[in-house]
Amino acid sequence: MQDFNYIIDVRNVHKSYKDKVVLDNINLSVRKGEFVTILGPSGCGKTTLLRLIAGFLPATSGQIFIGGKEITGVPPYKRPVNTVFQKYALFPHLNVYDNIAFGLKLKKLPRKEIDRKVARVLKMVSMTDYEYRSVDSLSGGQQQRVAIARAIVNEPEVLLLDEPLSALDLKMRQDMQMELKELHKNLKITFLYVTHDQEEALTLSDTVVVMSEGAIQQTGSPMDVYNEPANSFVADFIGASNILNAEMIEDELVRFANHDFKCVDKGFGEHTPVDVVLRPEDIVVFENPSNGMLSGKIQSVVFKGVHYELTVLTEDGYELLVHDYNSFNAGATVGLSVKPFDIHVMKKERLCNTFEGKLIDSSHVEFLGHEFECQEVHGFEPGEKVKVEVDFGHVELLDNEGMIEGEVKYILYKGDRYHLTVLTDWDENIYVDTQDVWDDGDKAGISILPEHIRVIHL
Q1: Which terminal residue of the chain has fewer beta carbons within 10 Å of its beta carbon, N or C?
Q2: What is the pTM of this model?
């Protein structure tokens, strides 16, 4: 049954092109009057989701409701939404007035009403007295204001904004952020905003929806998403962070960087592998190393205007990013401490690589589209479907050809190693722990030794 508390309700929406999945079972509910930002890296599916809601693309499956009515198959011009595009999409042969009035004229409204509505939105976007200017004579920020005015003049229930500030310089973008926030407050309509800019999302939004690889990773307030990330991707993508492998010893006690720390997290079990997030601003630096929980040597110091950014290498070889208002000298040995409530413990998304495979014979198994040699296994029938496990640290990446090929798609630094997501030629991810430095987009050969392949019954 449709929940009428939500003006937008996206249910189990899937979008694919042939074998390529762009959106995977998306569920999203937006309350009336909210400012919701869909945030994620390029290619994560955020713009596709916006275009599905706008009606510019059909969903492969699933339902979309706006204002309590299903509009999944309704054409764009019949939906109670307007869209502000990244490229503005203004009509170059029309002046400011005619660009804004275009939709009103299509509705055949009286001229006096059109004049009144256009004058009202020009005032709202601080463009009064510009109505007869050519849009080509306007700056980027002014063109953006015209695009927004054209969208809101039709009084939509929902305003969709697809990275509308990305073409502006930093100062103008920051100014427009404040204007958009004020505009949302005055209009009292629902804004659904798409961006890859984390600071923009945190500044503007009531609710942030973080996406990666066609799926929603977390939905919450800016403060919740920043302070309580759901997984390592969110923690890494939203602001600077230190993400470390850890072990939950017991409730309120976690071990990382070869030391035990008190924390406030519970319910993870005992001796459970977890991830820990430390925000750089939450790590306290002491000139006297003995005053800290950890000690380390400062590798670099960068002045960031408001604070100094320090890179500290602990005595056990863990590299930590630290923000402090005081200046320290590179090469100095310092102490580091963190309070229990500033340690955020997260459940690991996965403990090892897991694949579906097929046993060829007692010492060969097929997975990722390739036949691998494995240690001899018993109790299986040739041709039987099996589960294959490989630890992250037992996948070797090569500069030259390997058993299979892949491309580095995501890099997460975990203090003493890199955790890489590599998209194989079989269009399936394999995860790799390495101390070697790779760049996003690098091509790599992938090799796995027989003794590192575990074959398990499904």
Answers
A1: N
A2: 0.86
